[in-house]
């Protein structure tokens, strides 16, 4: 009888002891995955597209970032994050714990790279920058990317982003800008479609690199179009000759336009054609598009470079001629200063 009572007591005690053991094991596990890891320096660790948790865990141990890959796999399976780890490059701080590492990978806080695509570049020029980026992957799209369809900006991206994806993102960004700004355009503009807005914005973009001048030049071109005057923009001539590439003389030096080129009729030469060029002549930025859709109403119809990076504006031919004379005088003085070594 005493034996039976002792056996019953043991049977009652075993689950209790098992619970203690299980609880102790759980506490040990929680401590192990939360304690500082073995790494002593900051590390960039990449999760490749399609890579499994087992592979990731094994590489973490191999690279000395965790002590036991089994703890990584168990932690991920217990909390359901096994399939939640995202592709990307991750900065792991020194002594990062298993919890830290998995949380970073789940949240997708991967390393971001940037590429700057300047306003006023042609599509061919922007595609060259994209093609030469060392982090972007894949070839350029085989289909033609139309002139003026990309929104210049600085874009952030993760390793693994393809060149085609970035180009699509730039096109989508321009569409969103037009969707936002087109309904807010001023009344009575001499442009009737978003496509025409991009064409005119591309001319404005090429005429000035000064942000404050864009609304003025947009207003000047708007006034010219309303009055039936030609735009007479030099960059449109250049686009018709070289598709926007700089012009050089026989010595390989940058040159200005020849009279014969100004007189040559192309689909873009606004000295020779009425209205807008056939297509955009570059990819305009948001500010140039906004300027065209809400231009300054200054009444200016002439402008000339001031020699200092900006322009002088005029409402009448007489005023314009005075501005031209002032610019010529500035040029002569600059040449004289250069010769005297000032």
Report on this structure.
- The chain is built from 12 helices and 6 strands.
- By secondary structure, it is mainly alpha-helical.
- It has 3 domains: about 35-110, Endolytic murein transglycosylase (Dna Ligase, domain 1, 2-Layer Sandwich), CATH 3.30.1490.480; about 110-175; about 190-340, no CATH class.
- Helix 7 crosses helix 8 and helix 8 crosses helix 11 (about 285-295).
- The radius of gyration is 33 Å and the shape is elongated.
Q: Low-confidence parts, pLDDT < 50 over ≥5 residues?
A: 1-20
How many independent structural domains? 3
State the separation between the terminal residues, measured CA to CA.
118 Å
Shape: elongated
* Rg from alpha-carbon coordinates: 33 Å
Biggest β-sheet: strands ordered side by side in the sheet: 1-2
Layout of strands and helices, then pairs:
Blueprint: H1 2-34, E1 43-47, H2 53-62, H3 69-78, E2 88-92, H4 98-107, E3 112-117, H5 123-132, E4 153-158, H6 163-181, H7 194-207, H8 214-226, H9 234-242, H10 259-263, H11 286-293, E5 302-305, E6 311-314, H12 317-340
Antiparallel strand pairs: 1-2, 3-4, 5-6
Q: Care to give the gist of this entry?
A:
By secondary structure, this protein is mainly alpha-helical. The protein folds into three domains: 34-110, Endolytic murein transglycosylase (Dna Ligase, domain 1), CATH 3.30.1490; 112-177; 188-340, no CATH class.
Main attributes of the structure:
3 domains, two-stranded antiparallel sheet, 9% strand, 48% helix, mainly alpha, 342 residues
